């Protein structure tokens, strides 16, 4: 029996068999066959990747160090080596394997040949080839998609790390649980897994060194524990735990149809976060008062391309019709960082620091045609329900001005085309950067509502990657800096009487519900599976009790003291 402790990601216990998905490092580059019509787009991707690497090198080769400069210049020559490129092309167009795999095998072969010589100079060039074409391959591999064909149904998936795109593909395999060696609790992969209600443990350090395919494993997603080859006593203990969880979920079922309110009967609205229109059905079954966040980028990520206006219109119409007159907040594309589309429709940047790069509204404003297509689809769908539109990753009022200018033009165009739409759709912004929170007194005058995204707000205010298990101890929504940014935003929204909700993961946790209700939040949005438990937290305390907790927390200097305060006050 081997017990590994990790980070609890998604609640629930289960017992199953391990299936390992090997990391896509150099030894496990995805190999897939391609159709002849894919040759040209993939060949273009190869050239894009080469030019990205050249751009990166160009900035590096400005270095004043003559040795470095020489190395980078020789790298540039390697990238322009027509003989080598022709060899790649020849192999790619005859073997019909994906370009990342072909480039990988070709540079490995070339390096091996160089290493086999007795010449020290040539041996060193082998490392250079691996370095330079490794960069190209990583870019290509990053945009390749895993099919997961080999993954069996109902397995416990074990991997080093996985991406949001993988979650969409893996869900079809109905995994019993997911274990990752890396990964953070608020990564988009984690959020999707919670949406799918799959128990999960991340940050299970070094587990891949010992775990084997088909071994029995117990996954405790509630506590963050993985037990490989459990003994009979442990199996019995966990069967008992599963029975208790079932009882708890039966109790939660009784809450689904009850309205959310505090102990002193103050009503609270609980919305669902979704990533496909179909999830709106589950949201209703779980008692959602509406949709607080529809992450539309997942529609695009699933297809790995940008959807047409008509395709998007049908998706938005579907969710609005399912929700009838309940509010549906649809967020425009938030691609970038870990949410990528490897489409040739737009320039796929290779960014050294994508979390601080071209994501969210920055992407939409720089790709106006894609943005306009989405806005047209949203406005056309608006006649089918109670739509609100929300914009992600805002950092300045100028972005809102640009959005409003484009929205105005879109409406004028639709009018000219005699297409029906609702005139006064509320337009809101996500407050998920410290810049937005600190300027919320200005932003409030330009929009109809705020939705606080605590996932990114925490990441950006504490300078901690939400997806990185190595720094997950630094990722604390209960950090006083985060709480103060939220409080500032709430106060500014209240002063100007615009609605403010919270749609980050913090909104679904008891301590988040307590602090946020205390600060004045009355609208929360979360994975539908968390809605009944949120009602359970709300009903146990009065608003005055929540206010007292948050007032104390806002005046407490450290995370540990705030967490102790919460523990003391929330255990009834
Ligand atoms: C957030 O940042 O809190 C949020 C809800 O947006 P996402 O998780 O999609 O980045
Ligand atoms: Mg966000």
Which helices and strands, and how do they pair?
Layout: E1 2-5, E2 7-10, E3 13-21, H1 39-60, H2 66-79, H3 82-95, H4 99-115, H5 120-143, E4 156-159, H6 164-171, E5 177-180, H7 188-195, E6 200-202, H8 207-210, E7 216-220, E8 225-228, H9 232-255, E9 269-274, H10 279-285, E10 291-295, H11 297-303, H12 309-323, E11 327-331, H13 361-366, H14 368-381, E12 386-391, H15 397-416, E13 427-431, H16 434-438, H17 440-443, E14 449-452, H18 454-462, H19 480-495, E15 500-502, H20 510-519, E16 523-527, H21 531-539, H22 543-554, H23 559-570
Parallel strand pairs: 3-4, 4-5, 5-6, 9-10, 9-16, 10-11, 11-12, 12-13, 13-14, 14-15
Antiparallel strand pairs: 1-8, 2-6, 3-7, 7-8
Bound molecules: phosphoenolpyruvate (PEP) and magnesium ion.
Molecular structure report:
By secondary structure, the protein is α/β, with parallel strands linked by helices. The protein folds into 3 domains: 2-20 and 147-230, 3-Layer(bba) Sandwich (Glucose Oxidase, domain 1), CATH 3.50.30; 26-141, Enzyme I, Chain A, domain 2; 261-570, Phosphoenolpyruvate-binding domains (TIM Barrel), CATH 3.20.20. It has 23 helices and 16 strands. The longest helix is centred in the N-terminal third of the chain and has 24 residues, at 120-143. It starts with a strand and ends with a helix. The model has no long low-confidence stretch (mean pLDDT 90). It binds phosphoenolpyruvate and magnesium ion.
Task: Describe the structure concisely for a colleague.
The protein has 572 residues and is α/β, with parallel strands linked by helices. The protein is built from 23 helices and 16 strands.
């Amino acid at each position: 029996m081997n017990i590994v402790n990790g980070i609890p990601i998604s609640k629930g216990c289960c017992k199953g068999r391990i299936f390992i998905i090997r990391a896509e490092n150099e030894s496990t580059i995805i190999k897939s066959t391609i159709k002849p019509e894919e040759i040209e787009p993939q060949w273009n991707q190869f050239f894009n990747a080469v030019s990205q690497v050249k751009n990166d090198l160009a900035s590096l080769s400005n270095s004043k160090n003559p040795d470095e400069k020489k190395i980078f210049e020789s790298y540039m020559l390697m990238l322009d080596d027509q003989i080598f490129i022709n060899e790649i092309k020849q192999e790619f167009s005859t073997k019909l394997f994906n370009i990342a795999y072909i480039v990988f095998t070709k540079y490995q072969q070339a390096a091996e040949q160089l290493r086999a010589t007795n010449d020290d100079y040539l041996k060193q060039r082998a490392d250079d080839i691996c370095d330079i074409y490794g960069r190209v391959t990583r870019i290509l591999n990053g945009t390749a998609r895993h099919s997961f064909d080999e993954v069996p149904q109902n397995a416990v998936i074990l991997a080093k790390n996985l991406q949001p795109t993988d979650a969409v593909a893996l869900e079809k395999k109905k995994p019993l649980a997911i274990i990752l060696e890396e990964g953070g609790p608020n990564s988009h992969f984690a959020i999707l897994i919670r949406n799918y209600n799959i128990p999960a443990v991340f940050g299970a350090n070094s587990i891949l060194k010992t775990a084997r395919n088909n071994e029995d494993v117990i996954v405790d997603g509630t506590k963050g524990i993985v037990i490989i080859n459990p003994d009979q006593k442990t199996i019995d203990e966990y069967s008992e735990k599963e029975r208790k969880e079932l009882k708890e979920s039966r109790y939660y079922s009784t809450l689904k149809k009850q309205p959310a309110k505090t102990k002193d009967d103050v009503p609270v609205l609980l919305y669902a976060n979704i990533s496909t229109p179909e999830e709106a059905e589950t949201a209703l079954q779980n008692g959602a008062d509406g949709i607080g966040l529809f992450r539309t980028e997942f529609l695009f990520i699933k297809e790995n391309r940008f959807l047409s206006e008509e395709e998007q219109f049908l998706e938005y119409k579907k969710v609005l019709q399912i929700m009838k007159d309940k509010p549906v907040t649809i967020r425009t594309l938030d691609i970038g960082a870990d949410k990528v589309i490897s489409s040739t429709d737009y320039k796929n940047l290779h960014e050294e620091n994508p979390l601080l790069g071209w994501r969210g509204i920055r992407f939409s404003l720089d790709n106006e045609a894609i943005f306009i297509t989405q806005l047209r689809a949203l406005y056309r769908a608006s006649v089918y329900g109670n739509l609100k539109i929300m914009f992600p990753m805002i950092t300045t009022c100028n972005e809102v001005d640009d959005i409003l200018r484009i929205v105005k033009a879109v409406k004028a165009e639709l009018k000219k085309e005699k297409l029906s739409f609702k005139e006064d759709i509320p337009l809101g912004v996500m407050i998920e950067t410290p810049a937005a929170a600190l300027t919320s007194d200005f932003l409030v005058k330009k929009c109809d509502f705020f939705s606080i995204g605590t996932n990114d707000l925490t990441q950006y205010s504490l300078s901690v990657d939400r997806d990185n298990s190595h720094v997950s101890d630094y990722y604390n929504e209960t950090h006083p800096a985060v709480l103060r940014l939220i409080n500032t935003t709430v106060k500014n929204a209240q002063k100007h009487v615009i609605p403010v909700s919270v749609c980050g993961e913090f909104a679904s946790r008891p301590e988040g519900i307590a602090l946020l209700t205390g600060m004045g939040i009355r609208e929360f949005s979360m994975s539908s599976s968390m809605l009944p438990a949120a009602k359970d937290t709300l009903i146990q305390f009065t608003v005055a009790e929540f206010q007292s907790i948050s007032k104390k927390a806002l005046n407490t200097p450290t995370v540990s003291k705030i967490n102790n305060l919460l523990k003391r006050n929330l255990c009834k």
